[in-house]
Each structure stands twice: as structure tokens, then as C-alpha cells.
Amino acid sequence: MNRESYQGPQGPPPPSASSTATPRASDNAPKMLYNCADCGTENEIKPKEPLRCKECGHRIMYKQRTKR
């Protein structure tokens, strides 16, 4: 078995994920409106974002009804 040091691929490096400016699905996702159970302020929260009031930090939120 040959004991030479490893030689990686000699081509150009692959494009990184940060260099491509493709929008993610979560960026275009609609924001839902929630009311805080403690202070009553209206909060716009995206999907995958933690449910927490932006004013008081309370975690119990009421989802507003959609208007169809």
C-alpha cells in the first residue's frame, strides 16, 4: 500500500451556498398574525420562528382568524 500524503481534487472549488443568492421558501412565506395573551399586542410571526411576544416576551399567543 502506498503511504504518500493525500492529494485532494485539483479542479476549481465548488460554489458555496452563501455565494448563490437564491431566495429560500421561508423568506417568501406569509407572516401570520398573533395576539399576545399577556399584553395584547399584535405580532407578525413567520413560520419556524419562535412564538414569543416582541413586546413583553410572553409565550402564550392567540392566532388571529384569516379573512377569506
From TrEMBL:
Q: Which InterPro entries match?
A: RNAP_P/RPABC4, RPABC4, RPABC4/Spt4
Keywords of the record, alphabetical order, are:
Metal-binding, Nucleus, Zinc
Q: In terms of domain of life, where is this protein from? A: Eukaryota
**GO BP annotations listed:** DNA-templated transcription
What Gene Ontology terms describe what this protein does at the molecular function level? Answer: DNA binding; DNA-directed RNA polymerase activity; zinc ion binding
Region (Disordered) residue spans: 1-29
Q: Which SMART domains match?
A: RPOLCX
- Pfam (any one): Zn_ribbon_RPAB4
Location(s), subcellular: Nucleus
Give any Gene Ontology cellular component.
RNA polymerase II, core complex
Tell me which family the UniProt entry assigns to this protein: Belongs to the archaeal Rpo12/eukaryotic RPC10 RNA polymerase subunit family.
Q: What's the protein here called?
A: 17451_t:CDS:1
